[in-house]
Amino acid sequence: MKRLSELEPGTVAKIHSFEKNDLFLKLMEMGCVPGEWVRVEQIAPFGDPISITVAGYNLSLRLDEAENIFMEEEDR
């Protein structure tokens, strides 16, 4: 299991869980719910923010937000 912040562009993975903190509700309101598939689209030149596709739309997350999301990589 990896954190969303550790994934490379083009990676498709499923949200497994979150660290228990005050960002949990905010992330869920943005469509980042356990079981949802995510594709990492781009990472900014200095690593922050990252662009992902989740629940059918593009979302930019700060690196500190992405570090709170644990992912399961897709088996291919």
UniProtKB/TrEMBL annotation:
Q: Which residues form the Ferrous iron transporter FeoA-like domain?
A: 2-73
Q: Which UniProt keywords apply?
A: Iron
Q: Name one Pfam family in it.
A: FeoA
Q: Does the keyword Iron apply?
A: yes
Entry's Gene Ontology molecular function annotations: transition metal ion binding
* InterPro entries named in the record: Fe-transptr_FeoA-like, FeoA, FeoA_core_dom, Transcriptional_repressor_C
User: What Gene3D superfamilies would the database entry show?
Assistant: 2.30.30.90
This chain's protein is named Iron transporter
Q: Which organism is it from?
A: Puia dinghuensis
